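Figure 2 data, in text form.
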Amino acid sequence: IISDMVLDIGGIRFPAAPFNGWYMETEIGARNFGDKQRYNQLEAVADIMGFDRSNERTLWRDKALIELNVAVLHSFKKAGVKLVDHHTAVEQHEQFERLEAEAGRPITGEWSWLVPPLSGSATSVFHKEFDPTEHKPNFLYRNQGDRIEESTSNTSSLGCPFS
């Protein structure tokens, strides 16, 4: 995703700026593994788990999504890698909202990015409206016409500033 974004600061667009972020388990378990246009693993998981797929009323897709996310959390924990679950991430966002309100700053955000793709209505963010205004500096999606220009200046003579 980041390769499709630029950092916009004061109208200057940086195509290769460093980025720090984190994955939430639903990005992997629900979206990457579950989406039809991605790995599309819901049927396979349902079959392995023995879920009844004879009709949609058995909610086999929902059960498979839960199990995929449980498996993702388990595998990361087993490997000693921290990965936030969607309920904890919502709690963290609520704390962020409180701190911003105390500082007198407005909360902005894109609802579809803040509401997790699993159990969304069981979270507080599902029941809120957010102002989707984007502020800068910010990472923005690259325009289709954007080109990454190669530098023509020779900086090799400058040497490493840390040596």
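Caption note: The chain has two domains: 1-22+86-143, 23-83.
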